[in-house]
Amino acid sequence: MELKQLEYIVKIAEENNITHASEKLYITQSALNQQLLKLEKELGTELFHRSRTNWHPTEAGEIYLETAREILALKKNAYNRIFDLTNRKKGYLSIGFTPNRGSTMFSAIYPNFHKKYPAIVIEPKELSVSQQLELIERHALDIGFLTLPEKQRKPTLSYKLICREEIYLATPSSMDFTSCTSRIPGYDFPVLPLKYLSEQSFVLMYKESTILSVINDLFRNAGFKPTTLFETSSTNTILSMIRAGLCCGLIPAHYVDKTDSNISFYSLPERPGWEIVSCYSKTAYTSQAAEDFISLASKYWKTKM
Q1: Host domain of residue 68
Q2: Does a structural domain hold residue 21?
Q3: CA pair distance 149, 210, nearest whole angstrom
Q4: Last residue of a domain, which of 65, 87, 109?
Q5: What are the phi and psi torsion angles at 131 (to 5°)?
Q6: How many Å apart are CA 150 and CA 228, to the nearest integer?
Q7: Which CATH number covers residue 44?
Q8: Residues 52-74 pLDDT 10s
């Protein structure tokens, strides 16, 4: 197995398309196709099911890819260890984060990272939490920054706690729940039990979102199933609907704007929350550059909570 050949096959699988793979590899499609055909002839079997828009691995292809990813991960681990040993600040780092606030975090800390590691190539990737976890398991992503309840963590991965993020109840300011609230020392907002909103409509995060398990537990404990207008992948969309007076919502602390006169925020008695964590493979070597990037991200998030 040639390392370059391994990289080619893995990239085709990642892109599910030989044209896109060739563009990412900066080689012609015909050259990449010749490499694939040569390998398939050597193995005596096809590695991909081919269609015009989607290439996906055959059973033999899955076996080849599993081994290829392991070999490439070993190569990367060895290089990173040697670079750290010789204090050569170079290499490659792929960073995953969720859209919106993850992108904001990356933009805020990258200049400081680049100042210290100008020769390290960073590949930022906007991905859902589930996509990040899958890629880290396949050694296709070095570090992920996730918001994840502890019960959803995979035992094959390592997690480093950055901070805990509380989840708040948000309603249109036109709704008056004063008679149902109480003031409790140490809580950020008036405390409003969720059960008092059983007649209200909600906009919730989509089913694949990791926050949904936390939210479902809250409604279960409150004793009702919410009336849901729709589901979305964007917390900002939920806030827009609340601002328009159409619904209520459950909002992570990062998105709370105390100056917004159109939205009232409340603490819940349980003080529900989830954790912002960095995530990486248990079997991969974490380079000094990766550790420093995680440290910068941790400092950023701790100033935002």
Answers
A1: 1-87
A2: yes
A3: 7
A4: 87
A5: -65, -40
A6: 26
A7: 1.10.10.10
A8: 888 999 999 999 999 999 899 89
